[in-house]
TrEMBL record:
Its EC number is 2.3.1.21. Residues 1-26 form the signal peptide. This is carnitine O-palmitoyltransferase. The lineage of its organism: Eukaryota, Metazoa, Chordata, Craniata, Vertebrata. It comes from the Eukaryota. It is a multi-pass membrane protein.
Amino acid sequence: TLRISWHTRFMRIWRHLLLWLLQTNNYSVFESALQLISHLIAVFPCSKYVTEEGQRIVGGVLIGTGLWIAVTFVMRNVLKYLLSWHGWMFNRHGSLSLTTKIWLVLVKVCSGPKPMLYSFQNSIPRLPVQAFSLLFKIIKSRPLMDDEQYKRMEGLAKDFEKNLGPKLQWYLKLKSWWASNYVSDWWEEYIYLRGRGPIMVNSNYYAMDFLYVIPTTRQAARAGNSIHAIMMYRRKLDRAQIKPLMVLNTIPMCSSQYERMFNTSRVPGVETDVLQHMNESKHIAVYHKGRFFKVWLFYDGRLLLPREIEQQIERILADKSEPHPGEELLAALTAGDRDPWAKARSQFFSRGKNKQSLDSVEKAAFFVTLDDTEQRYDPENSVQSLDSYGKSLLHGKCYDRWFDKSFNLIVFKNGTMGLNAEHSWADAPIVGHLWEHVLSSDPVRLGYTEDGHCKGNPHPNLPGPQRLQWDIPEEGQAVINSSLKVAKALADDVDMHIIPFNDFGKGLIKKCKTSPDGFIQIALQLAHFRDKGKFCLTYEASMTRLFREGRTETVRSCTTQTCDFVRAMMNDKATLKLLKVAAEKHQDLYRLAMTGKGIDRHLFCLYLVSKYLGEDSAFLKEVLSEPWRLSTSQTPLQQVDLFDIKRHPEYVTSGGGFGPVADDGYGVSYIILGEDLINFHISSKHSSPETDSHRFGSNIRQAMLDMLDLFQFDNKASNK
């Protein structure tokens, strides 16, 4: 995709240059250069075959091309230098310094008028390797250590910095000089692809539909519009026509994660999985009631229209054939442990019709499940309906989603839909960007007829979907059943709870002159302390896409300042000042993480280097062994211009969520929608006596309300 986009851009500029040269008669600018070119051409035999006018045109083209290349090279490197400065991030919220304003103007000038998706890739700076002084932020944040533990950790850190640390750091810097990003390839391999446990619940995540509306209750029609919208997004992606995401509408973020969104599948291996990416795929794989179908999305050289895709889905829904032996539960292999799936794939799916059918699934553009259950938000039964909906998207029946695909589109019987995405190829904001485009296209741009069908007409000669054929022996079916048993135990243990918090939202928090994300993170700490009576190591995901091939960094949001505020709240001694100090500390940590000054990815890479060299570090081992009992993430709403939430509040999305990271911990995802709504997605495990998602949800709601009271009391006192 990157190669195509630059080639297209180069050819467009080349044509403009030729046109300009052919239309102008004034070559005085190039006169001296053309004389030199004329002498050079005269040396070669071809000069007698080229007229003087032709030589002038060739010379002008060569000089123009050279100038264009030189200017492009200079502008790209100037932009790279500008983007290496991150002082803009530390401006006070809502205001920009003069330096930042001048810097933004320079970035805009160097960016060009209409940048394409991959236009900035060579200008985005590399992630730097931080100095060791940053590692001491770990021991300076003391909420989880008593005096004795602190003293011990301080000693381990100083010993590491003096002895083993410099050696590991040298190897890491050496890698940073030749790698585009010294973290991302190791992060993908060791955190995701080498994991041998189930990726269902433990790694995959989900995205929900609109919260309040279902544009049509016809399952086939909703699938038709959504599949067409996804393929239109892929077309724009292939042509690099999607506008790159930019902070402050000026500062570009890396777009490399988009490259494997489609035609990608995670293939299991005995020691490590691999990501299989096809350059192009013209079909999707569809699952319905235990059968797999291959559906071509192109006919007569064009993409099928929404009504034509609906026609194909209707044919699948009307198909009454029975599943082949083992076919109905086949996808459970992707939900269980990885090693049994890798061995079964090699033993039972490496030849014949099984290989051909598996290829059709793994090489599909994406996977579609036509779910035979009904899910949606029911205002009269809000808790149970949303919890059921979230669990269904996270794991379903454990055999009706192909968890290895880059993403699954799930369309329920009543027209509600959602996504389940595999995590190794990209992070949630990338999938969220696709999903926002799909949701905005579905009811508004594409729309439906009065009776709920896609607009347009069925195709009279369209060949039907192809039923995939399987011949799975009894030994293979035994492996499938074993994987299903593992997956079912994991799925049944998930305690999911979703809260649409509408008491107040971003609008009121901003009036209190506090960061909404900081406010929510402090509320989570207060809720957790009330829930468990203690603090815990807390993970908040922050993106590092201001750097080339950046993915995420950790914000350790359980800080000393936050703990001070929580303790004060528990003793009814909290003040607005304590809250604002805690929120500002959180924002500083978030800014450091975004600008490449985080510590956890650095520590992770130092640990990998130590294992490669066969060196043991007590400091690294201790720092990295503590579990994240509270794992949190904000789902960003990046394309707010696609939705007019003020005029159409019914089109708010429910956001998305993920499973618990620790067996005795919570996973919390939240999305800030408009000015007055925040959706929380909470997960934990029933098997843990310490956790209860519904109890934690109640504590989050109460913590949010109690913290708001601080502002209200402060305002009343000011008025008096």
